Amino acid sequence: MKRRNLLLLACSPLLFTSCLVTKKQYHWSERGRMAALFSRDSLADLLATSRSEADSLTHDKNALMKDTASLNKSLRSYKGLLANSNHENERLNSQNKELNNQLGQNQQTILELQNMIKEQNQRVKALLDNVKNALNGFSSDELTVHEEGGKVYVAMSDKLLFESASANVNEQGKKALGKLSEVLNKQTDIDVFIEGHTDSVPIRTPIFKDNWDLSVIRATSVVRILTDDYQVSPLQIQPCGRGEFRPVADNQTPEGRSRNRRTEIIIAPKLDKLYQMLNEAQ
Prior knowledge:
Layout: H1 2-19, H2 23-134, E1 143-148, E2 151-157, H3 158-161, H4 171-184, E3 190-197, H5 211-229, E4 237-243, H6 254-260, E5 262-269, H7 272-281
Parallel strand pairs: 3-4
Antiparallel strand pairs: 1-2, 2-5, 3-5
Helix pairs in contact: 2-4, 2-7, 4-5
């Protein structure tokens, strides 16, 4: 027993020496352990950060996808609006082209109408001059000539054409109508209106019932002289009676009544072409 104890005592230094580590080795070991601990914590933090960033990116991605869907919807809407706008522009351009063409046609029509009206006015002026020249030998008490509204008016007094209360044209009246017929027979595109007028003094005879009757018969008497004696075309002439209803002067005075007792010959150039062009322009 004593011997074994002595043996253990002798071996103890050796065992102690083999179990002990050096200080340097200890520091290296501790440094490694601490590094491992730090790496683990760092990795955990990094992992948590990565997960947070991943969640944020996922949120951003979802938001972007939502915005993209909204933008795509808006884009489709804008494309639809653009298509409608292009269609509307094409329609408006087509309509504008048609309006421009119509405007050009209207301007051409207006120009033609202006030229026709100008020619018409020139014709009326020439007609007025010819009538004045033809009736130059008669006094203003017997007849007057003037232009109004594109028509030539020849007002012959009753004392030039008729005896009092008579519808028979006298010789002086026939002479005046003969001079006028020289102008009318040279015009092929005119209308001639013969209007009989009286004053307001009532008349009643076995031949004439009233002033209206007298004015109508006097107008037809003038028409017969022009057509039968001077070959004016009956297709150009239209007689009518106005009685006392269109006076040109005061019937309260002898002078006024004398002016109202008249036969008006109204010469109007035909406007058939002008009316036709106006109807076509509508």
